[in-house]
Structures are given as structure tokens and as C-alpha cells.
Amino acid sequence: MNYFVLKGRAALEALDNVQPVDTPECPFDWRFVVECTSCGEEPYRAIVINLFAKFQVENSERTWNFRASCEYCPSTHLALIRRTKGAFREDCEDEWVDLLHIIADGIKFKKFREKKSIWHGTSEFGSKTYENINLEYSSWCDYDMDYYQLICMDNARFQIVLAEDIYEKMFKARDGVVHQVAMLSKKLRI
């Protein structure tokens, strides 16, 4: 199993607390370019995962958010995702924010595709909420007519990192059974 973290950063102007619109009625589609860990091939299309999809797998205690077979070999790909409390903030332009924790079996996550993703955020001037922030081109702008101010999110960037520090501490053996370390569960909020 591999453990990944999706991180993001962006420049915000008069906008704060930007995060995905992700509800059971309107689930956020997390799109990723992945690679099979068995054969090393990438699927033709990006995979789509949402938090509300649930799959049971034989011989697994977990309920997974994604399950598929490799197009090129008999390997099965599984993924479990968890949102963090991270959000893009105006005062954190130079910092990478943890957006998503990923546990993957049989696949390596390589790139996040923000195409067709809808985010929401709040104006720094008041309680106005912007519900349709589209990051398809890594930028979004609107104009606040009440405050005569341009509202922008620019240069949105994402990266997926292998969480080696978590990976090394993930499992410990006790009485011949593998148990999850409580620290990791707390960190990943699983």
C-alpha cells in the first residue's frame, strides 16, 4: 500500500477559505492520472473518485472509494480518500496546503486533474459566498459590485507527494496480526 497527500497552493485576492464543493447531493469528482504498480502502465483516461462512493472488497476490512481492474494486467486498483480541513487562504499564498489524504493499493497517484472541478470560497469583505469557482485554467476572477473589488484566485497548482513519513509508521505487528498505528488514523482522520 502507498500513502499520498494531495497538496495545493494559489494566489488569492479578496477571497478566502476556498475548498471543493463536496456534498452527497453534489459530490466533488477528484480526477487523477495514475499508474499501475504491477505493470507500470497508465490508464487511457484519468480515474475519478468521490468520497461518497463505497466499495467492499473480499479479504479487506476497509470500505474503499475506488475499485477498478488494470486495463493492461490482471491487477486490481483500490483507493481510499479522506478530505483534510485544509483550504486555500489569502494569507497562505506561499504555503502548500494538504487537501486530501489517499491510501492506494495497486496504483501510484501521479497528477491531479482540476478540469471540471467546482470550488467555493468567501469574500474577505463580507459574508458573500462564491459557489462556482472553476479552476479548469488554474485561475478564476469575479467582481464584487458591493465593494467595487476584483475577486481572484490565480496560479492554482497541485502536487501529489508520497507520504513516506506516514508510510514508515503505518503498521506495526502485534501477536502476528497487523494493526494500524493510532497516530496515523488520527492524522489521516480515518
TrEMBL record:
Keywords: Metal-binding, Zinc. One of its GO terms (molecular function) is zinc ion binding. InterPro entries: CXXC_Zn-binding_euk. PANTHER family: CXXC MOTIF CONTAINING ZINC BINDING PROTEIN. Belongs to the UPF0587 family. This is Uncharacterized protein.
